[in-house]
Amino acid sequence: MSQINELAPDLEVTEWVQGETSNISLQKGKVIIVKVFQVNCPGCFSAGFPEILDAIKILNKEPVVFWG
Predict the structure, then answer these.
(1) N or C: which end of the chain has fewer CB within 10 A?
(2) What angle do CA 1, 10, 48 make, to 5 degrees?
(3) DSSP state, 10?
(4) What's the pTM?
């Protein structure tokens, strides 16, 4: 079943660890970049976090939201 050009469903998040509470439907007109990581993952710290921090710097004036 294709989901191209369909609205993304809201997430079922009961508690956010940090940052403002939000959901997909509250971010209309913005691109949402989700970075999935594991706290005990060495690759997340050596490559993943620097990668997302670089993207935040590059896209800081664009309508982009970063969630992790």
Answers:
(1) N
(2) 90
(3) P
(4) 0.73
